[in-house]
Write a structure and sequence with these properties.
single chain; 103 residues; alpha+beta; two-stranded antiparallel ribbon; binds zinc ion
Length: 103
């Protein structure tokens, strides 16, 4: 594979989906990316990966395909503690969503 930065979620580093290799897109809001799954798993002694840490990112499309393959469906709960954006951030997010829908 290319020289992907798989763990950097801040700063100027690009973030790639480990599954499809596509870059996680930035939004119009500074230092904000389209949502994705970031996993960091440290394996213990009772595994074949003793004391290794695996770190990877999965874009939403790959996440959807992955969880659809599960035999037992995932739980789907709503977030009750909602993060509030400023009016300017909401305007920028709406523009970003509109641009995404027009692709
Ligand atoms: Zn992907």
């Amino acid at each position: 594979m290319e020289n992907y930065n798989t763990a950097n979620v801040e700063g100027e580093g690009r973030i790639y989906c480990n599954c499809c290799g596509e870059e996680i897109e930035r939004t119009a809001v500074a230092d904000t990316y389209m949502d994705y799954l970031h996993i960091e798993k440290s394996w213990g002694y009772f595994s074949s990966k003793d004391l290794k840490t695996h770190t990877f990112n999965i874009c939403e499309k790959c996440y959807d395909r992955w969880v659809e393959s599960f035999v037992i469906p995932i739980e789907d709960n709503y977030i009750e503690d909602i993060f509030f954006y400023s009016d300017e951030e909401i305007r920028l997010l709406n523009e970003a969503y509109a641009a995404e829908l027009c692709k």
